Amino acid sequence: MAAHPDPTAAPTPFQRVVADLRTHQWRAGVTIEEIPSPQRVAPYAVAITVDLTHRDQDLGTGRVVILHDPDGVDSWQGSFRVVAYAKGEVDPEMLTDPLLAEVGWSWLLDALASHEATYVAPSGNVACMWGRSFGALEETPLQAEMEIRASWTPRLDADGGGIAAHLDAFAELLCDLCGIPPLPEGVVMMTPLRQRRQER
Predict the structure, then answer these.
(1) Which residues contact 8 (CB under 8 A, 6 or more apart)?
(2) Model's pTM, two decimal places?
(3) What do you get for the CA distance between the two ends of the chain, in Å?
(4) Each residue's pLDDT tens digit, 45-99
(5) Number of domains comprising the chain
(6) CA–CA dist 88, 74 (Å, integer)
(7) Under 8 Å CB-to-CB from 195, ≥6 apart: which residues?
(8) 1: in domain
(9) Is residue 43 part of a domain?
(10) Helix %, strand %, coil % for the chain, to 5?
(11) Measured distance CA(25)–CA(38) in Å, rounded
(12) 23-40: per-residue pLDDT in tens?
């Protein structure tokens, strides 16, 4: 099943999702770029990379893919599916916590709840990794990372409205993963979507 390359030929709900994605106002420090979407997962798809910086330091990275099948997919329990990936460095001492993976998964669910992003059928995996350098690099500090791979079915309006809450939830997840505090109340989110011409 190949994804349709032209969103303007897509059903209205998917067009609305793409338009809202491209005009979404992200919190400060989040940089977005549109990338080629998967071609054989659903009839329609759009994908972005998400990078997080704080005080000129690259902290985390991720990816969000939004899939749409107008006929619906039984396993999705709907016609849309959000597929997300987030990775960031964590304090190596956190890896001693046997419940760290559960904590990482709770960050996703809490972020969705805090932005009132309604959904069904969540699934995913949390991986916690560490690495030690040797030889000429043995002075390099112990490095620890967490990766969260997840997907869920967003409950959107009939016209496709409502994806913004899910995008904000993903940004919050990436910030939680990298230890960045929530955006203070009253601070305006920023950073427009940068589009990259897709290779055909």
Answers:
(1) 15
(2) 0.83
(3) 17
(4) 999 999 998 778 888 999 999 999 999 999 999 999 999 999 988 777 776 777 8
(5) 1
(6) 32
(7) 22, 33, 34
(8) no
(9) yes
(10) 25, 35, 40
(11) 24
(12) 999 988 899 999 999 888
